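Q: Helix-turn-helix domain-containing protein, please. Structure only.
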Amino acid sequence: MSTIVMPPPEMHPRDLYQKSKLTHEQLSVHYGVARETVSRWISGKQNPRRSIKIQTVAIARELGIEL
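A: Structure for Helix-turn-helix domain-containing protein:
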């Protein structure tokens, strides 16, 4: 019998932005990217990589935010 491995959960940075009330600047520090990059993710002009979506879950847990 094989084991089923579930992929890590993913959330869009927009979800974290809306629930955390952090600024684009504060989020950029958490993600290690430029503020403009966070702005493009939030506005929908750019889609974040899958690794960023996975990182969003980790950041939310770190901040105690339920997504």
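A: Brief note, in case it's useful. The chain has a mean pLDDT of 91.
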